[in-house]
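Per reviewer request, we include the raw input and output of the structure prediction for the construct analysed in the revised manuscript.
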Amino acid sequence: MLEERIQELWAQAERIGRPVVAHRNPGVSAEFLEQCFGVSVPHDVAVWFGWCNGIAYHPNQPQDEAALVPGYEPLTAEESAALRGEYPEDPVLGSRWFPFLGTGGGDFYAVTENRETKCSPVVSVMIGEATRIAANSLDELLDIFIECFDSGIFYNDADGSFQADDERWIELEESAVSDGRS
């Protein structure tokens, strides 16, 4: 179940002592999301934001402390809606996409929705690189993130900074998409 995977992801972050855990904002309702986005949202998006509506920021908070996965912090519904309004059209994203994790540099992960196929793949957008499908579903992406924690792909370095073996992380995403596992 998606909510269980979300809880497991946050438990993994807590297990390695990530400060973001203490800053999680409570979730919001599907009605609130519809007001923010101006459209109904896919089930996965409602579950994600229903569990966590971004994080609370504090004065002088280092960006690293806001990261749930290395470099990416949970977005609020308002931040997500604003990002949608600012980002140019992209054929991989399509017309219905909902960012949920983002970086300070403009990279993000978004759940997309294809109403014809009833699929909701997750897309990775990295500024300056080709937009790509990172996972066949939000469930699958969370499984990848949890595996990254379990296998040490996500780790705190000697200085306490949140790091990742980026090559292995991308390999897991590419393998999941090519295998069609979910």
